[in-house]
Amino acid sequence: NVEIMKQLIAYISILFFFFVQVNTKNFVEDYCWRDWNGIVPSDALKAGEDKNGKPIYVGQVIFKGKLINGKIYSDKEFLYFDWVWKEHSQVENVKILCSNQPQKFEWVQTLYNKVLSLLDKKLLVPGGVEEYTTYIGRVFCDGEKTVGKVLCDKYECSGLYTTSNGKSHTYKDFEVLYYNPEINSTNICEGSTFPIDVRFTPK
Q1: 156: alpha, beta or left, given left = phi > 0 and alpha = psi -120 to 50?
Q2: Taken in order 115, 118, 99, 19, is the CA torsion positive or negative?
Q3: Which residues, other chains included, contact 114 with Cβ-Cβ below 8 Å and sequence gap of 6+?
Q4: Using CA atoms, how far apart are residues 95 and 86, in angstroms rounded to an integer?
Q5: DSSP β-ladder status, 86-90 and 126-129
Q6: pLDDT tens-digit readout, 34-44
């Protein structure tokens, strides 16, 4: 029936999302999604701040056959995310965005109807897959510099969706996260769990 077909298409989209991530590893090898068990990894990418100045991180969850990005607080056990204009929380099937090269990530201010035009010149970081690929956005909301998902179709984005105190909030003016491979890598000490990036070795 129609519902089964929708679920099948959603799972195929998620598999394609991971296929693209794996096959672009040699180019975008400076970040990954790690399994999150309630403990923030040391290399988790700090994306915002809560009202007490503690970091907020980007999380990702499988929910109702969709791959959705949301936010993780350093002192809470749940991933919080928007779904159908409501705040949801989950502890299972959650990943957290990590990087050993955080200086290569930048936030650019934009409007909802300008996001897709950035794809021609910037590597926007994908956060999930709903009907289409979603991106990672950031905005001030209820005294926090918080993160959420930027929903787009093939023609335009509808805005940044984030949550606070059980409610969903939508913004048309926000920042979007992108990866800049032109920024030099930080040297990593021998014996680190990460390999030394030699792509930018001086000639």
Answers
A1: beta
A2: positive
A3: none
A4: 21
A5: unpaired
A6: 999 999 999 99
β strands within the chain, DSSP E: 31-35, 46-49, 55-63, 66-73, 79-83, 86-90, 94-99, 105-111, 123-124, 126-129, 133-141, 144-152, 157-164, 167-171, 173-179
Total number of residues shown for the chain:
203
pTM of the model: 0.78
Locate 40 and state its tokens: 């923030």
For 46-84, write each residue's pLDDT tens digit: 999 999 999 999 999 999 999 999 999 999 999 999 999
Whole-number Cα distances in Å, 59 to 5, 67, 104, 119, 202: 27, 10, 19, 22, 35
Look at the alpha carbons of 36, 40, 42, 48 in this order and tell me if their dihedral is positive or negative.
Answer: positive
Considering only CA atoms, which of 167, 115, 106 is closest in space to residue 141? 167
CA distance 82 to 166: 9
Host H or E run for residue 54:
none
CA pair distance 166, 150, nearest whole angstrom: 19
- Separation between Cα atoms, residue 185 and residue 190, nearest integer Å: 15
Residue whose token pair is 């090898």: 29
